[in-house]
Amino acid sequence: MRYLAAKCASGSNPAGRRDREKMTMSLAKVILLTMTTAMAAHGTVTKATFGNTSDGTAVDIYTLKTEGIEAQVMTYGARVVSIKTPDRDGKVANVVLGYSALDGYLDDGKTYFGAIVGRYGNRIALGKFSIDGHQYQVPVNNNANSLHGGTVGFDKQVWKAHEVADGVEMTLVSKDGDQGYPGTLTAHVRYTVHHGALRIDYSVSTDKATVVNLTNHSYFNLAGDGKGTILDNEMMIPADKFTPVDAGLIPTGVLAPVEGTPFDFRKATVIGKRINDDNEQLKIAGGYDHNWVLRGQNGEMKTAARVYEPGSGRVLTVTTTEPGVQFYSGNFLDGTKYGKAQEGFVKNAALCLETQHFPDSPNHPSFPTTELKPGETRHSTTTFTFTTHAK
Ligand code: BGC
Hints:
The structure is a single chain. The chain is mainly beta. The protein folds into two domains: about 1-40; about 45-390, Beta-galactosidase, Chain A, domain 5 (Distorted Sandwich). About 10% of the residues lie in helices and about 35% in strands. It has four helices and 27 strands. The protein has helices at about 1-10, 15-40, 100-105, 280-285; strands at about 45-50, 60-65, 70-75, 80-85, 90-95, 115, 125, 130, 135, 145, 160-165, 165-175, 185-195, 195-205, 210, 215, 235, 240-245, 255, 270, 290-295, 300-310, 315-320, 325-330, 350-355, 370, 375-390. The strands form seven sheets. It has a nine-stranded antiparallel beta sheet with strand order 11-12-13-14-27-23-22-17-20, with no helix packed on it. Helix 1 runs antiparallel to helix 2. The protein is globular. It starts with a helix and ends with a strand. Beta-D-glucopyranose (BGC) binds near residues 111 and 249. Beta-D-glucopyranose binds near residues 289, 328 and 354.
C-alpha cells in the first residue's frame, strides 16, 4: 500500500497522469479487497419469502452464511430449515432433516423438525402443574401427557424476526393463558453463525409466574439429509447420570448412574451398538429418548455432546448453559414422510440433541427449576459446532 501511494504521488506529465490513474485504480482495488476480506470474516444475512400459513400469514426464511456454515431459519416455529457444512473432503451437504417447502412443515404436526419448542420443551405429566398453590392444566397431546408446549406450541406459531449482526433474532409474545400457561411470556431466540458454528441465544421474561423450557428440535444426520441412519455414528455425552422414565416417558424423579448401562456415553460409543440391548428403558422408548444430567453448573457453558460420522468425517460438538440434554434417536420416524432428499424419514434417520431443563421439572422440586417470575429474564445459550476429522 505504501509502495502504491508513493508511485501515485510522482510525476505530472500525461504518462505520469496515466500512471497515477492506474495507481489510483490499483489502490481502490486493494482497499476493496481489504474491505471484502474484512466483510467475509462476518456472516452475511439474506431474507426471502418462504410461503404463507393456512390463515395467510407470511413466513420468511433467513439464510445466514459465514466460513464453514450456511444455516437457514424461518419464522414459522423459528425453525432451522437447513444447515450446510463441508465434509472431510470439502463436499458440502445439508445435515438436518426438513422439507423443501413450507407445506411440508404445516402438514407435519409430530416431528417438530428444527423447531423451537415451547413453552415447555418435552413432557409435563398429565399436563398438570401448580405454581404458588394455583393448579394449571395444559393440553394433553401425547398419550396422557403434554408434549412440547401443547397442541399449538411455539413450533406452530409465526415469530417476528429482525436481522442482527451475523444472524437473525426471532421474537414471540405468548399471551397469558396461551395453551393454558400463565403469564404473558416474551421469548427472544437469536440465531447467529460463527466459523462453522450455529449459536442460539434464548432470553425469556414474563409478567406472571410461569414455567418455561425452550429448546431447539433439529434432527441431525451428519452424513447428510436422507443418507441412511445415525446408528453407526459415534457419540459422547459427558454425563454421569440420566433421568429414567416411566411407560409414558415421564421421568421417575431418580437421577440414575449411567455406569454399566447402555446410557453410558462418557467414552465415545457407536450409537447402534447397544440400542437393541435387553434394557427396560430402551424398550420403553424404542431406543434412546432420555435426558442426560450434564456435569458442571446450570448456567455455565459446557459440552453437552459430541457426534462423529465416520463416512463424511463430520463432527458435531454441542455446548450449552442448560443442565440437561435430551438425546432422541429418531425412534418415532416411520418412513411415511419424505423430505428434501426425496428419501423417507425412516426410524433412526437422524438424532436430536435437545439442550434443556429436565422433562416434567414442574412436578419434580428436586430438579433445577423451570419457574420464571415477573422481573426476571432467563438467558440460555447453545452452540452447534461443525468440524471434520481425518480418516
Ligand atoms: C421427545 C420424543 C418425541 C420427539 C418428537 C422428543 O423431544 O422426547 O419422545 O417423539 O421429541 O416429538
